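hey so i finally got around to running both of the ones u sent me last week. sorry it took forever, my laptop kept dying halfway thru and i had to restart like 3 times lol. anyway pasting them below in the order u listed, first the sequence line then the structure token line for each. didnt double check formatting much so if smth looks off just lmk and ill redo it

first one:
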Amino acid sequence: MLVDSHVLVTGATSGIGRSCAIAFAEAGARLTITGRRADRLAELADELPGEVTTLTFDVRDRDATRAALAEVPSPDVLVNNAGLAAGFEPIQDGDEADWDAMLDTNVKGLLTVSRTLLPGMIARGNGHVINIGSTAGHEAYPNGAVYCATKHAVGAITKSMRMDLLGTGVRVSTVDPGLVETEFSVVRFHGDADRAARVYEGLDPLTPDDIAETVVWVADRPRHVQVAEVIITPTDQASATMVHRR
């Protein structure tokens, strides 16, 4: 079903997005990969089999996003993966620049990409939007108020989007991971690699490939099957704040 389909993955320069691009390419899809770092996109494109288009832009820049996406056909599958966590302080000590980065990327960026590409899917009567959420969209935890808020927003947007698109032939899904070892924590802690490593210390976290495998499975269901939501966590994680460390 995915062979020769067109898949667009945002935030493909690292982590889950990069693994999704590789997994879809290996499944025979044609890829459009986007991100802020042109060198990483080019490096990834060279590694992937098949047809690959790269688009360099920041989803926080609405005009640049719309202009870049106007250059490609509407995809069969859109993976809204671009996102980040920035900072880990109680709300009374939070950095407003971090808040803006998360809101502009995780919520407004997802909305801009979706709003730009959905009309083409609707006109074609076929398409699939897969939003990468988080277990943080299902529960809150200390020092994560704004990040959790953005991922709760992704969950609400996904549900409403599914209702809005009912009858159009466009499917809408969300894949919500728990602890995945990527650059996520390094970014959250503003480059403090030692602090980031301690997040995963003593447990077996998910890998980006685990999530990519799930995303491809969701995309590859028959057209009459819509996987609305997948929550995936490591065996060593029971909740946002409960993990088993050896």
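and the second one:
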Amino acid sequence: MAGLISKVGAFLKSPEGKRVTQQVQRAAKDPATRRKLTEAVSQFRGKGGRGGAPR
């Protein structure tokens, strides 16, 4: 497990990792992206969306 954590850390410090981090941060600030994510989480939890048995 420690090997995986160190690999992730090394990736985040690399130029590509920094670029991906910035891209994710920009997407997180976008209201449309946040709304889509909120809707997806609600559907996954069964609190909306289409059909499915209530919990």
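quick thing i noticed on the 2nd:
The two ends are 35 Å apart (CA to CA).
anyway thats it, ttyl
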